[in-house]
Amino acid sequence: MAFRTTANFNNAPKPWITIPTELIGSIPRITALLEGQQAYKAGRISKNQLDVLQDKAVRQTIAELEKTGPGQITDGEQAKPSFLIYPIAPLYPSEYTFDDMIDCFTIIFSDGHQRTLPRLTKAPFRYGKYAVDYVRKAQQYTCRPIKQAVISPSALSNVYPRPTIPGYTREQFLDDLVNEVEKDIRLCLEAGVDKVQMDFTEARLSLKIDPSGKLLRNFVQLNNRVLDRFADNPEYYNKIGIHICPGGDRDSHHSLDIDYTLVLPLIFDLHVKHFYVSLASERDRKKVLTMIREYIQPDHRIFIGVIDPIDARVENAEQVCDRILEAARFINIEQLGTTDDCGYAPFSDDESTTRAKCYDKIRARVDGTRMAERILNTRK
């Protein structure tokens, strides 16, 4: 928690409480990179040429994010194929297949479009890419604190096929999965990141698949197997957060119709201190905030979503400020942070939001947070 001091009317110093504000992760890819991705898929450019385009996109995005305000930044996930499959994409097609689509886990969005996970075909489960590679690249272009998003084990647990792989049980797979996700997080922390955010966007979706809540409970338990491995290191444990949202891709959600208050009680069973909770897109924010107030623990920090990335309208600082002041009636300022509901382009081919609009929204979040911070500190 950051403090500075100011004087009251009796000239006695009092602490100034800073409300941290953070980006979730992704920024729409630059045009040259989008064109390069298509050229690479068509075989018109080499992997090395694509790497050069990704490198330029990372450098440009970091420079642009630095202009939106102080604090930590991300690399905009410019080099990720998506937030979901970056660790396993390099292993296509030797260890994964889309051949049996019936057996593949598919996410259906409200506008009808779909995103599909491939099916694992070869043991053991392993990563072909670790997020620390993105961290090291970003560190070449900025001295600012870096935040890195990683995918949850619960999301990747869906790559295991319904028919078991001969000689490789689901239990063995889950053991390997937990080990790899732990390694993904640990490498980022060892590289010096300021925060690691585990994306758990399938939490709300799980209740659409299984309304009984059993699947969500299993997801929480699986994620805790990873999180518990950092419990004996306070420095690392304090840098890990969880992101929960109803999905956001091509201007549509996958689970906004699921009652948030059915999800949140189990979310707070996660063994983590920082929660990134989408809120701007909710119709009844007060209902959600009431439940957060009921379940929040003294060591928790709640980063509330004050920007809706898929809303075509650009929020202004005053709107953001009002949303924060509303939340402050339920959450102590010492435990409050702000963020965007979701990334702006979780999948690399998502062009539904322009980069210019994205930066306007980010600046509104930063400016609105500072505005609310001044008001709340004055009220103390």
UniProtKB/TrEMBL annotation:
Q: Give the transmembrane region(s).
A: none
Span of the signal peptide:
none
Locate the Cobalamin-independent methionine synthase MetE C-terminal/archaeal domain: which residues? 20-351
Q: What positions belong to coiled-coil segments?
A: none
> Organism's domain of life?
Eukaryota
Give a GO biological-process term. Answer: methionine biosynthetic process
For this protein, the record's InterPro entries field holds: Met_Synth_C/arc (IPR002629), UROD/MetE-like_sf (IPR038071)
An MF annotation (GO) of this entry: zinc ion binding
- SUPFAM superfamilies noted in UniProt: UROD/MetE-like
The entry's protein name is: Cobalamin-independent methionine synthase MetE C-terminal/archaeal domain-containing protein
**Species in which this protein is naturally found:** Adineta ricciae (Rotifer)
Organism classification = Eukaryota, Metazoa, Spiralia, Gnathifera, Rotifera
